[in-house]
Specification:
The complex is a heterotrimer of chains A (320), B (511) and C (359). With 320 residues, chain A is mainly α. Chain A has helices spanning 3-33, 41-61, 68-93, 98-120, 148-151, 157-175, 177-187, 189-194, 199-226, 237-247, 252-270, 283-300, and strands at 137-138, 154-155. In chain B, the strands form six sheets. Chain B has a six-stranded mixed sheet with strand order 6-9-10-3-11-12, sandwiched between helices. In chain B, strands 18-21-22-15-23-24 form a six-stranded mixed sheet, with helices on both faces. A four-stranded antiparallel sheet of chain B has the order 2-1-4-5, covered by helices on one side. Classes of the chains: A mainly alpha (320), B alpha/beta (511), C mainly alpha (359).
């Protein structure tokens, strides 16, 4: 294997791992920019990964062939929206503690997805292996470029989608009136309320977007990496996505950069033995990296917090 | 003008909250081009009434007419539609957003249905700002502009929405004297342009200065509506409080003795490295009340924090009875004989979710007899609490009641009881009467004078000039972190103090 | 003790009780949808736990670490901190106890166990202390830090086991020395070889300690003042930062002890984790259901442990996947967190009572 191919593949693997993180981190941004903390990203990804695994399997079973993984993505989207509504109802309508409500999502995701898998697959601990995962779409011409052709332009459609999503999310948040309102609700909800913006509705939209996107992120793991859903298909990616969101200062472009970096640190694990410098680093330390880095960044960035000002506070216009 | 239909008419508005009738059958007419003042004490029901007009609350009874048509205002949106705008006391502005973003928020000029047309927005704001002489920079971020400017942004927000009726809720509370006079100018300009204004305030001077009509409410009821030119401050005060009030504090001349507190060259910087205290000097002697006059934000909070050990200073010396207490811990300073009635009683003065009993030993819980070998002595604590509550007439159902459920006046009484009971050499009272009704204000001011008469040194910090003039024996004026002058209350007046507070140094000496 | 009764007044007890009932109902509905018999499932759950002494003993074994992580979360909560990091502190407690249990030799029987327990508690305390320190000194949000430290602990624990404590050829550590064991042989025999250990006793004592410390001591008064209003605490001369670190440390000690008990009393080794063990996260649920009160936590940990342990029997007896219990528990926390829903369910009851009063 020559080094050009290796680097190309490393970039490619990095993007594959990053894809789920990008989706989920952008989802997190929509929720948190509206003022709702979302610790439940992990659970929402689990729901998505589950829905994708199950729906694709049934689609294959029904003879839908190559369309099956797309049915899976669609199912994940719907599942994510439904699951995020639990978080929305509890934390927005009933003003539950947002962190606790997020914990509930993680609890429910872990329990209910496995319960349903066992129910649907005769007690098995995982979904039946998919025959038709997503396949890579090489971009004509561009994929022939050395290194980046293999690295960037020979990727899953979901990866392209994730990159487009970053740009769209940036545009929506900073260049549209919807984005202005969403951010206003997260910074100063009562200011938004007095100019007639429906605070609770905006927050619902933020949380639902986070559910849809996080679930899509989870689905990409099932459809591109594991081809099956089991209890550990999602283990920690949701929290890495939260880390990416914070690392990226709640900005889609920043989160994208962080997600790619964390994706790279996961990918490098697969190429461990190939580099002299990485041979001696224990694998566990590589796994730890995103988490430790997040702590370091948080500590270093104190006082200049870019978190939305009203993050985590239920909006209560006050009875008196 | 009386012949014309009022632009807003409130008819018999009643609003009840659990345990209280906030508005009791209130009627009010606002005419076009009029500045109508709504006068009342804290808690009289002014804000409730205006929140009803602005659609934040629904009245239980009564009706509202706008330009002669009955309307239901069930949301701020509806109020905006009807041309009613509100300039809130606590600004509703998003700090990291620009002026323009704040103003257009909720009614953004758009392209293609979604794209925020920022350029057009800026142009519109600029035009509006020029029309009313407001001089705001549309591209500045809120967090970078002064409080006075922020208030103009609030005004622009209502104008941008096409408001013809503007409600100003205690608009002068946070402004400097200059900013106040500028605001008065802006209000006059607004009515000249055909707007109508409701001004909520408890400051008689402002009413006399700017309003055409004044409606006085007390305990949720309308007491009277008068033409401003046909009344005077004394009459207004009497109607507001319900009895004749002198606003003068009875006290004998002070007999100051030795210096208790001496502050020399106190300098302190904030996070951004800007000096908030700038070589500040002052002296307080036993048996006198030194009043610190000044506009909010000129270093008062920082001075108090430095004196009580809540924050550190870069330079300077604070001496209490000749001993250096600079940058010592709050506990050390408390034990040295300083008591502190804090500016914000909810933030600093009380643990609202603690019982009254627990709150009464907030600074002494670790001492005998309340602490016995690391454990709390409940019976001693309860005994102390019971004693203080009786002695200072704090109205609470029991000592186990949480501080949160007491009225503001009773909370303040409890704090004063606790602080005075420590028998301090120096009593620091920061904004001790803020948000209280006249009865409670009188109580607090009497206590301060009583402490002085017992030979304590009292440092009074207040933004209310009347309070400073009435209570203090000496007045020091603080401006940009410095004491810029010192005067005697009987030899000064509002105008002189106002000028000094605005930084025109008159008296060269330091306090 | 009048305060205890006040805390357990009818109204405050009602919310968790109704939440538990609602949670069980949600579980039943989901079982019905799945084509299972919920009554059979719940009855086989309870008959598993109370059916024989072995299972009863094992249920107690299950309850013990839940008490500890529940206390950990509640203790921090009383000081105004959300310790979502009990999971990581629990893992660090396990790892430290395992290391001491294996590597330290030549200590007499009780002493070795005590040293291992203390090591576990300290490790948990220090791990939580990091969060507390960063919160106090740098003002960083404790929730995010402790989530990140949970995962860090997971991989750090694995690293230590893999590199220093590994049993050759297996995915777990060597066995701890017998001198470090806190198993109670005679009690285990009495419970038909269920894994009984001293940790349970210490857990109950820890709850009592929690109560006395928090509500009867000077330090507890400070912690509560800091928890309710840090500014007022500072004004009153308390060292807020020190109290934050202290609260997190003690909280972490509880969680770390829970992990130590699990190694020293139950498994006697530490497996390489493939995923987070979850006991610390369960502690959040236990604390919430127990209303962050130590005695409430004894009850809620028992409920939680019984449900979890019994779920295995339920899957055996009624063929229901045991994960249903996670759904039940998740729903219970949901209903407690969103109390509005519970109040809404209870509304008819309140109205009735009011009417009675009028009459």
């Amino acid at each position: 294997m020559d080094w050009m191919t290796t680097i190309g593949q490393l970039i490619n693997t990095t993007l594959v791992f990053s894809t789920a993180l990008i989706f989920a981190a952008i989802g997190g941004i929509f929720s948190e920019r509206s003022g709702v903390t979302n610790i439940g990203i992990e659970g929402l990804m689990t729901f998505g990964a589950f829905a994708a695994g199950v729906a694709s399997f049934y689609a294959e079973d029904a003879g839908m062939g190559a369309a099956s993984p797309y049915i899976g993505l669609l199912a994940a989207l719907v599942m994510g929206i439904i699951a995020s509504l639990i978080h929305a109802v509890a934390s927005i309508t009933f003003k539950a503690d947002q962190v606790i409500s997020g914990v509930v999502i993680n609890f429910l995701a872990a329990g209910s997805t496995l319960y349903m898998v066992k129910l649907l697959f005769d007690g098995a601990g995982e979904t039946t292996l998919l025959k038709e995962g997503l396949t890579k779409w090489p971009v004509p011409l561009l994929s022939k470029i050395p290194i980046i052709g293999e690295g960037i332009f020979n990727n899953y459609p979901t990866t392209y989608l994730a990159i487009i999503l970053v740009l769209v999310a940036f545009y929506v948040l900073y260049k549209t009136s919807f984005g202005l309102r969403l951010r206003a609700v997260g910074e100063h909800p009562s200011a938004a309320d007095t100019v007639g913006i429906k605070v609770l509705r905006m927050r619902y939209i933020g949380v639902i977007l986070s559910g849809a996107l996080a679930a899509l992120g989870g689905a990409t793991i099932t459809l591109t990496t594991t081809n099956t859903f089991s209890h550990n298909t999602i283990s920690g990616q949701g929290f890495i996505a939260i880390a990416a969101m914070i690392f990226g200062k709640w900005n889609p472009l920043g989160a994208f950069g962080a997600a790619v970096f964390f994706g790279f640190s996961q990918a490098i694990g697969n190429y461990f033995q190939l580099f002299a410098w990485s041979k001696d680093i224990p694998q566990e330390f590589i796994y730890m990296l995103p988490y430790v880095l997040t702590v370091v960044v948080l500590v270093a960035a104190v006082g200049k917090s870019s978190a939305p000002a009203a993050l985590g506070e239920p909006y209560d216009p006050g009875k008196r | 003008m009386d012949a014309a239909t009022p632009v807003v008419e409130l008819k018999q508005i009643t609003k009840r909250f659990p345990g209280i009738v906030a508005n009791d059958s209130i009627s009010l007419k606002l005419h076009k081009g009029e500045i109508h003042a709504l006068l009342g004490e804290n808690g009289a029901g002014k804000s409730t009434l205006m929140n009803i007009v602005f659609g934040l609350y629904q009245p239980d009874e009564g009706s509202i007419e706008v330009n002669g048509t009955p309307v239901t205002i069930d949301s701020p949106n509806k109020a905006i539609e009807l041309g009613i705008g509100m300039v809130h006391q606590h600004f509703k502005l998003v700090q990291p957003f620009t002026v323009t973003e704040n103003i257009v928020l909720g009614m953004e000029p758009k392209k293609m249905g979604v794209h925020l047309d920022y350029k057009t927005s800026v142009a519109k704001i600029k035009k509006l700002s020029d029309q009313y002489g407001l001089k705001v920079n549309p591209n500045a971020k809120i967090q970078d502009i002064s409080v006075g400017m922020q208030q103009r942004v609030e005004i622009l927000k209502t104008l941008y929405r096409g408001a013809d009726i503007l409600i100003f809720d205690e608009p002068t509370a946070v402004l400097t004297p200059q900013e106040i006079s500028e605001l008065m100018g802006i209000m006059k300009r607004l009515v000249e342009e055909g707007k109508s204004i409701i001004l909520i305030t408890h400051k008689l001077k402002e009413i006399m200065q700017i309003s055409d009509t004044v409606t006085i409410i007390r305990r949720g009821k309308v007491i009277d509506t008068l033409k401003t030119e046909e009344t005077n401050p004394n009459e207004l005060a009497e109607k507001m409080v319900g009895r004749s009030v002198s606003f003068k504090v009875d006290k004998k001349p002070a007999t100051p003795k030795e210096t208790v507190l001496e502050v020399k060259g106190l300098t302190s910087k904030n996070k951004d490295g800007i000096a908030v205290l700038n070589s500040l000097n002052l002296k307080v002697r036993a048996g006198e009340i030194l009043g610190i006059a000044g506009v909010d934000g000129n270093g008062q909070s920082e001075l108090i924090e430095a004196l009580t050990g809540l924050s550190h200073v870069e330079n300077g010396i604070i001496e209490l009875n000749g001993k250096d207490i600079t940058n010592k811990s709050p506990r050390h300073i408390t034990e040295s004989g300083v008591s502190h009635i804090p500016e914000d009683r909810h933030k600093h003065g009380l643990v609202l979710d603690f019982s009254m009993s627990e709150n009464m030993v907030l600074e002494t819980y670790y001492q005998a007899p309340y602490n016995r070998g690391g454990f709390l002595n409940k019976s001693a604590i309860d005994k102390q609490a019971t004693r203080l509550i009786e002695q200072f007439d704090v109205r609470t159902p029991s000592i186990e009641t949480k501080a949160r459920s007491l009225s503001g006046g009773n909370q303040q009484k409890a704090i004063i009881a606790r602080e005075i009971d420590k028998n301090p050499d120096l009593l620091i009272a920061a904004q001790p009467t803020r948000g209280l009704d006249v009865g409670a204000i009188e109580f607090v001011q009497k206590q301060l004078v009583a402490q002085r008469d017992q030979g304590k040194a009292v440092l009074l910090i207040s933004f209310e000039l009347d309070e400073i003039i009435n209570v203090s024996d000496r007045i020091a004026v603080i401006y940009e972190g410095q004491i810029v002058g010192e005067v005697l209350p009987e030899e000064t007046n509002d105008q002189e103090l106002g000028l000094m507070m605005a930084g025109s140094k008159i008296a060269g000496g330091t306090a | 003790m009048s305060k205890v009764f006040k805390i357990f007044s009818v109204n405050s007890l009602l919310v968790p009780l109704v939440a538990i009932v609602l949670g069980l109902i949600v579980g039943a509905i989901i079982m019905l949808i799945g084509g299972y018999d919920p009554l059979l499932a719940y009855s086989s759950l309870f008959s598993t736990v109370f059916g024989n002494v072995y299972d009863f003993g094992e249920a107690i074994r299950e309850i013990t670490p839940l008490i500890m992580t529940g206390l950990a979360v509640a203790f921090a909560f009383r000081a105004g901190l959300f310790n979502i990091g009990a999971e990581g502190q629990y893992i660090m407690g396990m790892t430290a106890a395992t290391a001491v249990g294996i590597k330290l030799t030549g200590l007499p029987i009780v002493v070795h166990a005590l040293v291992a327990i203390i090591a576990g508690g300290l490790a948990g305390g220090i791990w939580a202390g990091i969060t507390g320190y960063l919160k106090a000194k740098r003002g960083v949000n404790e929730v995010i830090i402790s989530i990140m430290l949970n995962w860090t602990a997971l991989y750090l624990g694995n690293y230590i086991v893999n590199n220093f404590l590994l049993q050759k050829g297996q995915q777990k550590s060597e066995e701890i020395k017998d001198t470090a064991s806190i198993s109670i042989g005679w009690l285990s025999e009495a419970f038909d070889n269920a894994r009984m250990h001293w940790g349970t006793v210490i857990a109950i004592l820890a709850a009592v300690f929690f109560f006395i410390y928090m509500w009867k001591s000077k330090q507890g008064y400070e912690l509560r003042a800091v928890g309710h209003n840090g500014d007022a605490a500072k004004y009153a001369g308390m060292n807020v930062k020190k109290n934050i670190v202290k609260a997190m440390f003690i909280s972490g000690v509880f969680a770390g002890l829970g992990g130590a008990f699990q190694v020293l009393g139950v498994f006697h080794y530490q497996a390489v984790f493939t995923g987070s063990p979850g006991i610390g996260f369960d502690g959040i649920a236990v604390a919430l259901i127990g209303m962050n009160h130590p005695f409430g936590i004894l009850l809620s940990a028992s409920l939680f442990g019984i449900l979890t342990y019994g779920s295995a029997g339920m899957s055996f007896g009624a063929d229901v996947p045991p994960e249903i219990i996670r759904i039940v528990i998740g729903s219970i926390i949901f209903f407690i967190a969103a109390q509005g829903i519970v109040r809404w369910v209870l509304k008819p009851l309140y109205l009735k009572r009011k009417k009675e009063k009028v009459l």
